[in-house]
Design a protein that fits this description.
With 291 residues, the protein is mainly alpha-helical. It is built from 15 helices and no strands. α3 runs antiparallel to α6, α9 runs antiparallel to α11 and α11 runs antiparallel to α13.
Length: 291
Protein backbone atom coordinates (compact mmCIF):
# COMPACT_ATOMS: atom_id res chain seq x y z
CA UNK A 1 0.00 0.00 0.00
CA UNK A 2 1.43 3.37 -1.03
CA UNK A 3 1.95 6.17 1.48
CA UNK A 4 -0.69 8.42 -0.14
CA UNK A 5 -3.28 5.64 -0.14
CA UNK A 6 -2.55 4.94 3.52
CA UNK A 7 -3.04 8.61 4.36
CA UNK A 8 -6.28 8.69 2.38
CA UNK A 9 -7.66 5.68 4.26
CA UNK A 10 -6.65 7.24 7.59
CA UNK A 11 -8.57 10.42 6.78
CA UNK A 12 -11.82 8.41 6.51
CA UNK A 13 -13.18 9.47 3.07
CA UNK A 14 -16.66 8.24 3.98
CA UNK A 15 -16.73 10.70 6.88
CA UNK A 16 -16.41 13.59 4.43
CA UNK A 17 -20.20 13.36 4.03
CA UNK A 18 -20.48 15.08 7.41
CA UNK A 19 -19.17 18.27 5.86
CA UNK A 20 -22.31 18.56 3.75
CA UNK A 21 -23.80 20.21 6.85
CA UNK A 22 -21.83 23.28 5.77
CA UNK A 23 -24.36 23.73 2.94
CA UNK A 24 -27.42 23.88 5.21
CA UNK A 25 -27.29 27.70 5.67
CA UNK A 26 -26.73 28.10 1.92
CA UNK A 27 -29.93 26.21 1.12
CA UNK A 28 -32.18 27.42 3.92
CA UNK A 29 -30.75 30.94 3.76
CA UNK A 30 -31.94 31.21 0.13
CA UNK A 31 -28.39 31.60 -1.22
CA UNK A 32 -28.27 28.46 -3.34
CA UNK A 33 -28.69 30.39 -6.60
CA UNK A 34 -25.84 32.77 -5.75
CA UNK A 35 -22.71 31.45 -7.46
CA UNK A 36 -20.34 33.37 -5.17
CA UNK A 37 -22.01 32.04 -2.03
CA UNK A 38 -22.02 28.52 -3.49
CA UNK A 39 -18.27 28.63 -4.21
CA UNK A 40 -17.57 29.98 -0.72
CA UNK A 41 -19.59 27.15 0.81
CA UNK A 42 -17.73 24.59 -1.30
CA UNK A 43 -14.41 26.07 -0.16
CA UNK A 44 -15.50 25.99 3.48
CA UNK A 45 -16.53 22.34 3.12
CA UNK A 46 -13.11 21.48 1.66
CA UNK A 47 -11.34 23.30 4.48
CA UNK A 48 -13.45 21.47 7.06
CA UNK A 49 -12.57 18.20 5.32
CA UNK A 50 -8.85 19.01 5.62
CA UNK A 51 -9.22 20.02 9.26
CA UNK A 52 -11.25 16.92 10.12
CA UNK A 53 -8.67 14.75 8.32
CA UNK A 54 -5.95 16.21 10.52
CA UNK A 55 -8.08 15.58 13.60
CA UNK A 56 -8.66 11.94 12.60
CA UNK A 57 -4.92 11.38 12.26
CA UNK A 58 -4.21 12.90 15.68
CA UNK A 59 -7.05 10.93 17.29
CA UNK A 60 -5.76 7.67 15.80
CA UNK A 61 -2.34 8.40 17.27
CA UNK A 62 -3.85 9.10 20.70
CA UNK A 63 -6.13 6.05 20.59
CA UNK A 64 -3.70 3.60 18.99
CA UNK A 65 -3.69 1.12 21.88
CA UNK A 66 -7.49 1.11 22.28
CA UNK A 67 -8.03 0.83 18.54
CA UNK A 68 -5.85 -2.28 18.43
CA UNK A 69 -8.30 -3.98 20.80
CA UNK A 70 -11.35 -2.97 18.76
CA UNK A 71 -12.71 -5.59 16.29
CA UNK A 72 -13.20 -3.00 13.54
CA UNK A 73 -10.83 -0.12 14.30
CA UNK A 74 -7.77 -2.36 14.58
CA UNK A 75 -7.62 -2.42 10.77
CA UNK A 76 -6.98 1.34 10.59
CA UNK A 77 -3.50 2.08 9.16
CA UNK A 78 -2.05 3.59 12.35
CA UNK A 79 -3.42 0.84 14.62
CA UNK A 80 -2.34 -1.82 12.10
CA UNK A 81 1.18 -0.37 11.90
CA UNK A 82 1.12 0.52 8.20
CA UNK A 83 1.44 4.24 9.01
CA UNK A 84 3.95 5.36 11.62
CA UNK A 85 3.08 7.95 14.25
CA UNK A 86 5.56 10.63 13.17
CA UNK A 87 4.35 10.62 9.57
CA UNK A 88 0.72 10.82 10.71
CA UNK A 89 1.41 13.82 12.97
CA UNK A 90 3.43 15.57 10.25
CA UNK A 91 0.65 15.18 7.69
CA UNK A 92 -1.95 16.37 10.19
CA UNK A 93 0.15 19.48 10.88
CA UNK A 94 0.28 20.21 7.13
CA UNK A 95 -3.51 19.80 6.87
CA UNK A 96 -4.06 22.16 9.79
CA UNK A 97 -1.67 24.78 8.38
CA UNK A 98 -3.26 24.78 4.91
CA UNK A 99 -6.80 24.90 6.32
CA UNK A 100 -6.09 27.71 8.80
CA UNK A 101 -4.15 29.85 6.31
CA UNK A 102 -6.72 29.45 3.52
CA UNK A 103 -9.66 30.07 5.84
CA UNK A 104 -8.10 33.32 7.03
CA UNK A 105 -7.84 34.50 3.44
CA UNK A 106 -11.47 33.51 2.82
CA UNK A 107 -13.07 34.71 6.06
CA UNK A 108 -11.21 35.35 9.36
CA UNK A 109 -14.22 34.18 11.39
CA UNK A 110 -13.95 30.82 9.65
CA UNK A 111 -10.42 30.54 11.02
CA UNK A 112 -11.76 30.91 14.55
CA UNK A 113 -14.39 28.25 13.88
CA UNK A 114 -11.80 25.78 12.55
CA UNK A 115 -9.56 26.53 15.54
CA UNK A 116 -12.53 25.92 17.85
CA UNK A 117 -13.16 22.62 16.06
CA UNK A 118 -9.54 21.51 16.55
CA UNK A 119 -9.50 22.59 20.20
CA UNK A 120 -12.90 20.98 20.90
CA UNK A 121 -11.72 17.69 19.41
CA UNK A 122 -8.57 17.78 21.54
CA UNK A 123 -10.61 18.42 24.69
CA UNK A 124 -12.96 15.64 23.65
CA UNK A 125 -10.13 13.15 23.08
CA UNK A 126 -8.37 13.99 26.35
CA UNK A 127 -11.25 14.55 28.76
CA UNK A 128 -14.81 14.94 27.51
CA UNK A 129 -15.27 11.56 25.83
CA UNK A 130 -15.09 9.95 29.28
CA UNK A 131 -18.12 11.93 30.51
CA UNK A 132 -21.51 10.31 29.95
CA UNK A 133 -23.99 12.37 27.87
CA UNK A 134 -21.36 15.11 27.45
CA UNK A 135 -19.57 12.87 24.95
CA UNK A 136 -22.74 12.73 22.82
CA UNK A 137 -23.25 16.48 23.13
CA UNK A 138 -19.71 17.00 21.83
CA UNK A 139 -20.63 14.94 18.77
CA UNK A 140 -23.52 17.34 18.14
CA UNK A 141 -21.30 20.37 18.76
CA UNK A 142 -18.91 19.31 16.00
CA UNK A 143 -21.78 19.32 13.51
CA UNK A 144 -23.09 22.67 14.72
CA UNK A 145 -19.66 24.17 14.07
CA UNK A 146 -19.99 23.07 10.44
CA UNK A 147 -23.36 24.79 10.15
CA UNK A 148 -22.04 27.97 11.78
CA UNK A 149 -19.09 27.91 9.37
CA UNK A 150 -21.45 27.62 6.41
CA UNK A 151 -23.50 30.55 7.69
CA UNK A 152 -20.43 32.71 8.18
CA UNK A 153 -18.98 32.21 4.70
CA UNK A 154 -22.26 32.80 2.84
CA UNK A 155 -23.20 35.77 5.01
CA UNK A 156 -26.46 34.60 6.58
CA UNK A 157 -27.62 34.36 10.17
CA UNK A 158 -28.03 30.69 11.11
CA UNK A 159 -31.68 29.93 11.77
CA UNK A 160 -32.51 28.76 15.27
CA UNK A 161 -34.63 26.05 13.64
CA UNK A 162 -31.61 24.69 11.75
CA UNK A 163 -29.48 24.70 14.88
CA UNK A 164 -32.14 23.01 17.03
CA UNK A 165 -33.03 20.33 14.47
CA UNK A 166 -29.37 19.65 13.62
CA UNK A 167 -28.47 19.35 17.30
CA UNK A 168 -31.31 16.88 17.91
CA UNK A 169 -30.45 14.87 14.80
CA UNK A 170 -26.78 14.57 15.72
CA UNK A 171 -27.58 13.74 19.35
CA UNK A 172 -29.76 10.92 18.04
CA UNK A 173 -26.90 9.71 15.82
CA UNK A 174 -24.48 9.92 18.77
CA UNK A 175 -26.70 7.85 21.06
CA UNK A 176 -27.23 5.37 18.22
CA UNK A 177 -23.45 5.12 17.84
CA UNK A 178 -23.02 4.39 21.55
CA UNK A 179 -25.81 1.81 21.40
CA UNK A 180 -24.09 0.01 18.53
CA UNK A 181 -20.71 0.08 20.31
CA UNK A 182 -22.21 -1.27 23.53
CA UNK A 183 -23.87 -4.13 21.68
CA UNK A 184 -20.82 -4.87 19.51
CA UNK A 185 -18.15 -4.81 22.23
CA UNK A 186 -20.28 -6.26 25.05
CA UNK A 187 -18.10 -7.03 28.08
CA UNK A 188 -14.98 -5.66 26.40
CA UNK A 189 -16.60 -2.22 26.00
CA UNK A 190 -14.66 -0.61 28.87
CA UNK A 191 -11.35 -1.65 27.30
CA UNK A 192 -12.07 0.46 24.24
CA UNK A 193 -14.18 3.32 25.60
CA UNK A 194 -14.54 3.61 29.37
CA UNK A 195 -17.67 5.77 29.14
CA UNK A 196 -19.59 2.85 27.60
CA UNK A 197 -19.72 1.16 31.00
CA UNK A 198 -21.72 4.13 32.28
CA UNK A 199 -24.32 3.63 29.55
CA UNK A 200 -26.89 0.87 29.32
CA UNK A 201 -28.96 -0.29 26.36
CA UNK A 202 -32.32 0.68 27.95
CA UNK A 203 -31.00 4.15 28.77
CA UNK A 204 -29.70 4.69 25.23
CA UNK A 205 -32.99 3.46 23.81
CA UNK A 206 -34.74 6.12 25.90
CA UNK A 207 -32.33 8.81 24.75
CA UNK A 208 -32.90 7.87 21.11
CA UNK A 209 -36.66 7.97 21.68
CA UNK A 210 -36.47 11.43 23.28
CA UNK A 211 -34.27 12.93 20.56
CA UNK A 212 -36.23 11.46 17.65
CA UNK A 213 -39.58 12.59 19.10
CA UNK A 214 -38.20 16.07 19.72
CA UNK A 215 -36.67 16.23 16.26
CA UNK A 216 -39.85 15.42 14.34
CA UNK A 217 -41.86 17.87 16.48
CA UNK A 218 -39.40 20.74 16.05
CA UNK A 219 -39.02 20.11 12.34
CA UNK A 220 -42.78 20.10 11.86
CA UNK A 221 -43.02 23.37 13.80
CA UNK A 222 -40.36 24.84 11.52
CA UNK A 223 -42.42 24.04 8.42
CA UNK A 224 -45.42 26.01 9.75
CA UNK A 225 -43.44 28.82 11.40
CA UNK A 226 -44.56 32.33 10.36
CA UNK A 227 -41.13 33.14 8.89
CA UNK A 228 -41.12 29.93 6.83
CA UNK A 229 -44.59 30.71 5.50
CA UNK A 230 -43.48 34.24 4.55
CA UNK A 231 -40.61 32.77 2.52
CA UNK A 232 -42.61 30.12 0.70
CA UNK A 233 -45.93 31.96 0.52
CA UNK A 234 -47.85 29.01 1.99
CA UNK A 235 -47.33 25.82 4.02
CA UNK A 236 -45.77 23.78 1.25
CA UNK A 237 -42.80 22.87 3.46
CA UNK A 238 -45.19 20.50 5.22
CA UNK A 239 -44.70 18.19 2.21
CA UNK A 240 -41.14 17.57 3.45
CA UNK A 241 -42.28 16.23 6.83
CA UNK A 242 -43.10 12.63 5.71
CA UNK A 243 -39.56 12.23 4.37
CA UNK A 244 -38.10 13.28 7.73
CA UNK A 245 -40.36 10.84 9.59
CA UNK A 246 -39.53 7.97 7.26
CA UNK A 247 -35.81 8.74 7.32
CA UNK A 248 -35.73 8.65 11.13
CA UNK A 249 -37.77 5.45 11.27
CA UNK A 250 -35.59 3.86 8.60
CA UNK A 251 -32.43 4.72 10.53
CA UNK A 252 -33.92 3.20 13.70
CA UNK A 253 -34.73 0.10 11.66
CA UNK A 254 -31.06 -0.14 10.68
CA UNK A 255 -30.01 0.16 14.33
CA UNK A 256 -32.36 -2.47 15.74
CA UNK A 257 -32.85 -4.89 12.83
CA UNK A 258 -29.51 -4.79 11.01
CA UNK A 259 -27.49 -3.87 14.13
CA UNK A 260 -25.85 -0.91 12.43
CA UNK A 261 -25.35 2.66 13.65
CA UNK A 262 -21.73 2.62 14.78
CA UNK A 263 -20.91 4.86 11.82
CA UNK A 264 -23.79 7.08 10.62
CA UNK A 265 -22.17 7.68 7.24
CA UNK A 266 -21.80 3.91 6.79
CA UNK A 267 -25.55 3.49 7.35
CA UNK A 268 -26.37 6.17 4.77
CA UNK A 269 -23.98 4.71 2.20
CA UNK A 270 -25.25 1.18 2.82
CA UNK A 271 -29.02 1.76 2.83
CA UNK A 272 -30.35 2.61 -0.66
CA UNK A 273 -33.84 3.43 0.64
CA UNK A 274 -32.35 5.94 3.08
CA UNK A 275 -30.35 7.53 0.26
CA UNK A 276 -33.48 7.89 -1.86
CA UNK A 277 -35.35 9.40 1.08
CA UNK A 278 -32.65 12.00 1.69
CA UNK A 279 -32.50 12.86 -2.01
CA UNK A 280 -36.28 13.24 -2.27
CA UNK A 281 -36.37 15.36 0.91
CA UNK A 282 -33.71 17.65 -0.51
CA UNK A 283 -35.51 17.98 -3.85
CA UNK A 284 -38.80 18.86 -2.15
CA UNK A 285 -37.06 21.34 0.20
CA UNK A 286 -35.35 23.14 -2.67
CA UNK A 287 -38.58 23.16 -4.66
CA UNK A 288 -40.58 24.56 -1.73
CA UNK A 289 -38.05 27.28 -0.96
CA UNK A 290 -37.02 28.40 -4.44
CA UNK A 291 -39.89 27.71 -6.86
Amino acid sequence: MTFLKTILISTRPRQWLKNLFVFAPLIFGLKLTCLTALMQAVTAAILFTLTAAGVYLVNDVLDIEKDRKHPLKRSRPIAAGSLNLHSALLVSAVFFFVAILTSYLLEPLLTLILAAYILSNWLYSKFLKQMIIIDAMCFAWFFLLRIIAGAVVVGVKPSHWILICSALLTLFLAFGKRYHELRLLKKAANKHRAVLMRYSRPFLEQMMAVTTASLVVFYTLYTIDAHTIRITGDRRMLFTVPFVYYGIFRYLYNIYYFEKGGDPTEVVLWDRKLQITIALWLIVVVGALYL
